[in-house]
Write a sequence for this structure.
């Protein structure tokens, strides 16, 4: 399998739809990206990954005779004037269920001339979020069937993208990437990482290696942080540099040989991922305790005053200075590599519930750390991951215990039974700190 990097635009349903509209109307096509100066807790680690990926997009657009514009500022301020000045006939955009991007869309809609049609395409889910379900789903078991039933319709090959036959005519100004970097108001102390090279070309290489080397171990090894079994694709998925649909099409080719692994990967990348979007789309409190189920809110409230075995400040947590070397190693992995192993993310967030003053504080700290350090952070999967760990979203009640109430518990001894905890701790040079 060799995947061509040109796949980035070709694998984007919003782009494909926009080109189809332009071809039908025999009009030029423009691609715009509105670069905001800051976004939630994103740092240069995230903006650097995104901008370098965009440089690749701009280059690809050039070869397709499609001008790429980087509009510096909020979409509400930059896009409507662009549309008016250029006499643009219609706008097509992508979709995110998160509150801030939803607000951006609303603001643009209010400013666009009324005769300019505006379309939104869910380009990152296979079954579009609003088609998969029209309500908040209780859990994986209630959405799984709905998604699988619609895969035959949506899990198709992407149609080809073509060199655009209706050029703009004008010579476009080259993009000043330096000006883009200097427009940012982000924290530069969280460094970019070496292992994850931004852009579709690198992301597709990671997909290729995953299919060749790690997919066979996915079913048996994905809960072992010492084993190379995961796809590692979340940063490229997060920034739209590799389409989940492309990954599924490639992985699916191996369904006979690695049945369990292929099914496991589809469960994570399609069912769990779309469930996360479903939660954020239909639940306005997707990152707050109020967004939890009643049973979870009740049990957390009953246990709010339980004595915590340890209490840590945000600084102690951020520096990985707890008594628990495994937790510290997981935190260091996230800080240094920008990607904590999936199994450890659950343990990590549950311990934050156990070691902070309240579930509200636990949720706040975990989301802050996740969004600041994980390359794939500020994503529905992250909010749902923290909500699952701390307030039982998409889970069920378990045996009642201190602090957690009926929220599922995880502990060090359980991790020791699953994998060589010492090996992982040594890899990150983590040890135990006393308070
Ligand atoms: C506390 C906590 C925080 C998390 N934060 C994030 C985050 O910020 N961003 C993020 O993308 N994922 C997050 N996850 C989900 C999951 O841990 C990561 O998606 C996964 O570890 C990414 O690594 P990978 O691509 O190698 O995963 P793989 O196991 O190879 O999975 C492939 C893809 O499936 C999806 N996926 C896997 N596990 C889940 C899951 N549990 N829920 C939803 N989708 C899933 C992701 O898109 C992932 O890239 C979080 C989970 C928890 C418990």
């Amino acid at each position: 399998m060799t995947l061509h990097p040109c796949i980035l635009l070709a694998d984007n349903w919003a782009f494909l739809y926009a080109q189809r509209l332009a071809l039908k109307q025999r009009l030029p096509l423009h691609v715009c990206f509105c670069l905001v100066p800051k976004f939630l807790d994103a740092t240069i680690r995230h903006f650097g990954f995104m901008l370098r990926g965009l440089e690749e997009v701009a280059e690809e657009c050039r070869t397709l005779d499609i001008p790429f514009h980087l509009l510096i500022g909020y979409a509400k301020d930059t896009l409507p004037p662009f549309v008016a000045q250029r006499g643009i006939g219609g706008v097509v955009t992508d979709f995110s269920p998160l509150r801030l991007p939803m607000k951006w869309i609303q603001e643009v809609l209010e400013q666009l001339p009324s005769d300019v049609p505006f379309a939104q395409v869910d380009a990152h889910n296979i079954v579009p979020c609003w088609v998969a379900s029209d309500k908040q789903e209780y859990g994986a078991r209630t959405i799984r069937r709905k998604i699988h039933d619609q895969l035959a319709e949506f899990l198709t090959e992407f149609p080809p993208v073509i060199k655009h036959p209706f050029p703009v005519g004008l010579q476009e100004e080259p993009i000043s990437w330096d000006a883009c970097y200097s427009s940012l108001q982000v924290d530069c102390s969280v460094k970019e990482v070496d292992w994850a090279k931004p852009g579709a070309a690198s992301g597709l290489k990671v997909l290729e290696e995953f299919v060749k080397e790690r997919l066979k171990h996915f079913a048996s090894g994905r809960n072992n942080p010492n084993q190379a079994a995961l796809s590692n694709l979340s940063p490229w998925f997060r920034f739209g540099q590799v389409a989940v649909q492309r990954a599924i099409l490639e992985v699916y080719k191996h369904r006979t040989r690695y049945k369990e692994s292929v099914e496991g990967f589809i469960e994570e990348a399609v069912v769990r991922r779309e469930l996360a979007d479903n939660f954020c789309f239909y639940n306005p409190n997707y990152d707050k305790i109020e967004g939890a189920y009643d049973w979870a809110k009740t049990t957390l409230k009953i246990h709010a005053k339980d004595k915590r075995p340890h209490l840590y400040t945000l600084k102690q947590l951020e520096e990985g200075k707890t008594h628990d070397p495994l937790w510290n190693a997981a935190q260091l992995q996230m800080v240094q590599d920008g990607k904590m192993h999936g199994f450890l993310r659950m343990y990590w967030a549950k311990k934050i519930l156990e070691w902070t003053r309240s579930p509200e504080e636990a949720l706040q700290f975990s989301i802050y750390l996740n969004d600041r350090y994980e390359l794939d952070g500020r994503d529905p999967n992250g909010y749902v991951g923290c909500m699952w760990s701390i307030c039982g979203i998409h889970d069920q009640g378990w045996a009642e215990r201190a602090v957690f109430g009926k929220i599922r518990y995880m502990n060090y001894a359980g991790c020791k039974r699953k994998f060589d905890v010492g090996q992982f701790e040594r890899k990150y040079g983590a040890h135990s700190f006393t308070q």
